[in-house]
Omega-hydroxypalmitate O-feruloyl transferase (Gossypium barbadense), 471 residues
Amino acid sequence: MATQHDENYPTVRVTKTVSVLPKSLNPTQTIHLSNLDRQCPLLMYVVFFYKSSAAYQNLSLDSIFSCLKSGLEETLSIWYPAAGRLSLNPSDGKLNLWCSNDGAVLVEAVTSAKIIELGDLSQYNEFFEHLAYKPDFHGNFSEMPLVVAQVTRFGCGGYSIGIGSSHSLFDGPATYDFLPAWAFNSAILKQKKGTKLYKPVHERGALLLENPGITKLPESGSSATRAVAIDHLYQLIKQAMSGQTCGPDTMFGSGKLPDVGNSNLVLKTFHLSGAMIESLKSKVFGDRSGSFSCSSFELLAAHVWKARTKALGVMKGSMVCLQFAVDIRKKTVPPLPEGFSGNAYVLASAALTAEELEAGSHEDIVDKIKEAKRSISNDYVIAYNQALDGPQGTLPPLNELTLVSDWTRMPFHKIDFFHGEAAYVSPLLSPIPQVAYFMQDPIDSRGVDMRIGLLPQSLNAFSHYFLTNMQ
């Protein structure tokens, strides 16, 4: 990762590290994970920032830590898998969830830095990485806690809470259920009332291939439903290895993937107000903007796909893809139960040539995105699940693949661990930093903050193409 504002800040000093066990221990058991759970077992982090407030200036760090700890103990009694560990099944080499009551990890830390000195909290800063606990588990997932958190007091009296959870444990919507439950149970400066909490359902039964209720689809033939997103990924990798892609990094005919590695990416957040989004819609759809049905997600996904592909200079004849997560909780037959806490998403995929993408109107691209969304059915979910049943590798970074993740329906800043909403909630560096995250703007509820990882040499070009028609 290219250096982003880390060198001049005071150190963060850890003052306490404790294991947090469930208040009420549950019987140990194994929960079999679905293939959707096993895609990324690593910890995914977000940092909540709460600026100094008179409401809690007289509270000690120790009392806040104690509230968070007791709240987490209570929460883990219901969300008991979060106190467990991943375990490797020796018979098939697949990860499952061992509900062992080993506990989560909670860390207390202090820094003399002031939150205001961090500047725009929406812009990624490598200093943020020091505000989250990173356990050293030596690559052995059976030693990795599934939930970790660090509360840090700043010199100004403000606080941050950096939270990591294994993506094998929760997906985004489940995390958005777990964290409010913890905030509610911690009850810092508030009474336990007025918050709707969902009772979690941890068993993955409906998504397990060995479940007798799951019908295996034929692998080929006219009646077969294909996991289009995975088919497209294989085609992109094959195209890259054959040298049919773009740029100076390509080794034509070498049989090697071009090196567009993650280490040099710069994370950049673009602020898109509700007015800017409406302006884009008006300019690209013209007189039809009032009659053409289009969500903000569909419009911005089309726009970022066009801008990123053009900025990276992908060859016109190359296949390019847009892929995005689709929640399947109501797509399966029967629907997953309310409160389902596992991973319940698949990737939808739209594909064109770079030339078709550049020449196509936003309306054409939005129609392609809608078509990809409509393709997600129960049969698609089964086919996707089956396609993941084989050995999994790391997805190589590809200029031809644009990935989008929509967080706008999960406004994490509204989770009030302290008094009121967070000033900002920042995702930390993820295993796939080139993903474009759409997040609700904490000031403008119709606005979107889009964070994306870009190569430094393409940042200016992307900014130009992306902000065109936004002003």
User: Anything to note?
Assistant: The two ends are 30 Å apart (CA to CA). Residues 228-409+426-467 form a domain with the Chloramphenicol Acetyltransferase fold (CATH 3.30.559.10).
